[in-house]
Structure to design on (412 residues):
């Protein structure tokens, strides 16, 4: 049975990180396909909510525990979590970094993986990849965003990513070659048979995700579609609405939270199935380069059409299960700039079409394009040649193999 080791200081159980979610499901898929999979990771999270939803109180799990390393099995993956007391990578102490690295070296000896996968650009992550390469183990880096343009990926044999759009970005911008394989999902964890289509929903309503377009859409629909309700999941609009300004008028802030009575808000959800159960249309108006867009794919898997920005990998994420629309240039340049009435009109009209038409056939075809079996087959086809040519670690004794009598004399 081929053996794969995942290494990264970032927790794979972080519910606030799309990269962590994607890679955890990827490892689960490899384990189901006959690979023995271990993961060396730790309690580093993008957001505190991601830690709370994954492990409950880290105060109890980590701070009050005498263990230096936490070990557990989940979904056929063996997890090793060296202890850290802070959830930010920047706050890791030298002792914690040393514990992580020493744990990794012990795993490389005892588990003897045929392949090492992971991500992370910190000195700790780089040192871990360098150690794997020094022991003759092939390495694979998984890229889930478009911000590594200045990273040279040392000690990496293969770089994989989710979308063709991300691969194209790095090839053209940075002359870095990556292979797209698709995204990974646990369909049982994200799909629900119950549908009570009540809301037009946006996930993670942050400025770069296009909250300005969503707010404008909701404001216009308050007049034209007063019966339609809107929902945001994640960051609360009350913290953002007052910062949005009219096009070309940064001093004019036309909206207050009380001006949007048709918009409802819930916090980040560990289980998104109740949200998808009440969503009629998902809106993904991202204003930056979107490497994939997990929420858009999850909506498609739940028979929910998507209105998405024509940005990055969103076209691959919806796979034809919705419509792609351009976003205004001034909104891309200034995330707090609201589109005007003319610029939001295509979004309003597309929403009307989706609310009044059956999209089942469209979504059925999209789900076939997002086949998880195909994504896993593509990944395994890339990994198998690396595993086949894996060179075993060179014994340390070979570094000083001459008997004492044959060692040259050295005078000082």
């Amino acid at each position: 049975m081929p053996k794969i080791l995942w290494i990264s200081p970032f927790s794979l159980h972080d519910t606030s990180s799309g990269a962590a979610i994607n890679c955890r499901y990827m490892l689960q898929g490899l384990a189901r396909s006959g690979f023995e999979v271990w993961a060396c990771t730790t309690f580093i999270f993008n957001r505190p909510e991601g830690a709370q939803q994954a492990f409950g109180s880290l105060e109890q799990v980590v701070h009050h525990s005498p263990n230096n390393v936490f070990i557990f099995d989940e979904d056929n993956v063996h997890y090793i979590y060296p202890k850290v007391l802070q959830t930010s990578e920047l706050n890791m102490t030298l002792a914690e970094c040393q514990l992580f690295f020493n744990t990794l070296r012990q795993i490389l000896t005892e588990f003897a993986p045929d392949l090492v996968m992971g991500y992370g650009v910190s000195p700790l992550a780089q040192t871990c990849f360098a150690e794997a390469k020094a022991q003759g183990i092939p390495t694979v880096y998984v890229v889930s965003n478009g911000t590594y343009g200045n990273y040279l990926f040392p000690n990496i044999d293969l770089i994989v990513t989710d979308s063709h759009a991300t691969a194209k970005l790095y090839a053209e911008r940075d002359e870095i070659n990556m292979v797209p394989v698709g995204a990974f999902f646990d369909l049982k964890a994200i799909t629900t048979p119950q549908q009570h289509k009540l809301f037009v929903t946006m996930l993670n309503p942050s400025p770069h995700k296009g909250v300005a377009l969503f707010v404008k859409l909701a404001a216009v629909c308050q007049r034209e579609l007063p019966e339609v309700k809107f929902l945001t999941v994640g960051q609360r609009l009350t913290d953002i609405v007052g910062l949005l300004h009219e096009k070309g008028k940064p001093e004019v802030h036309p909206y207050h939270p009380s001006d949007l009575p048709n918009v409802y808000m819930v916090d980040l959800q560990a289980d998104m199935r109740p949200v998808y159960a009440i969503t009629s249309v998902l809106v993904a108006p991202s204003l930056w380069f979107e490497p994939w867009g997990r929420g858009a794919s999850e909506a498609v898997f739940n028979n929910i059409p998507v209105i998405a920005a024509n940005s990055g990998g969103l076209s691959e994420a919806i796979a034809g299960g919705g419509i792609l629309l351009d976003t205004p240039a001034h909104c891309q340049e200034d995330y707090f700039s609201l589109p005007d009435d003319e610029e939001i009109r295509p979004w309003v009209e597309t929403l009307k079409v989706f609310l009044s038409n059956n999209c089942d056939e469209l979504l059925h075809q999209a789900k076939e394009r997002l086949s998880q079996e195909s994504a896993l087959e593509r990944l395994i086809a890339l990994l198998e040649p690396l595993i086949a040519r894996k060179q075993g670690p060179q014994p340390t004794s070979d570094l000083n193999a001459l008997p004492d009598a044959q060692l040259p004399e050295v005078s000082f």
